[in-house]
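Write out the 3D structure for:
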Amino acid sequence: MFGSAPAQADGCYTWTRTLSEGATGADVRQLQIRLSGYPGYGGVLALDSSFGPATRSALVRFQQAYGLAADGVAGSATYNKLYALQDDDCTPVNFTYAELNRCNSDWSGGKVSAATAKFNALVSMWKLQAMRHALGDQPITVTSGFRSIACNNAVGGASDSRHLYGDAVDLGAGPHSLCRLAQQARNHGFNGILGPGYPGHGDHTHVDHRSSRFWSASQCGI
C-alpha cells in the first residue's frame, strides 16, 4: 500500500501498491499500458507485466511530462494523474472506442479476435494521449481505426492492413500538420508511421504497431 496515503478508488482500475523496478504482476501490466506512449524515440514498451529498466524509463518520461517527481516509482502521485487521465471504460480522456471503430459496434470481422482488436485500439489510444500531451494538449483528429475485412475492402485498404488488427490509426490534419503528427509519432511507440510522401498518404498520417519498424513520410523527413 502507500503507507499513510489511502488508495483512491477508480472506475476503471485501482492500484493498491507502489510499483518500482523488479515488481511483476497484472498491476504492472496495467501501468505499462498507460505508459506505452512514453518509450522514447523509436522505442516500444513491452506489456510483459515485468517492471524492468524500460518501464522505469517510460515512467520517468511520464512523470516529467506532467511535472511529477521523476523518480521512476509509481505511487499515489503517479496513480492520481493516471486516474485523472482515464475514463471509467479505461480509455484515455481525449479518445474513445467509438473514434477508433467506425466500422461496427462489436470489433468483429478483422484478422484477430474482437477482444484483441479492442485491446490493441486501447493501447493505441494511450499512445495517442501521450502524443497529444507532447503536442500541447491540442486535439488530434482520428479519421480511421479498426476495420473488419468487409469495411477494409469497402475503402480499398491493403489486404493485410494493420487496421484489420485494431492497432492502426489514421490521423487527419487539424491544429497540427500531417508532417508534425508523423514526426511526433516517432517518440510514442509506433513501429509503423506512413505519411505525406508515401503513396496514398498525402491526406493523412497513418500510425500502427506492426512487428518491426517501417517509417516512411519522405515529405516530412522521415
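The helical segments are 26-35, 53-65, 76-85, 97-100, 114-134, 149-154, 178-185.
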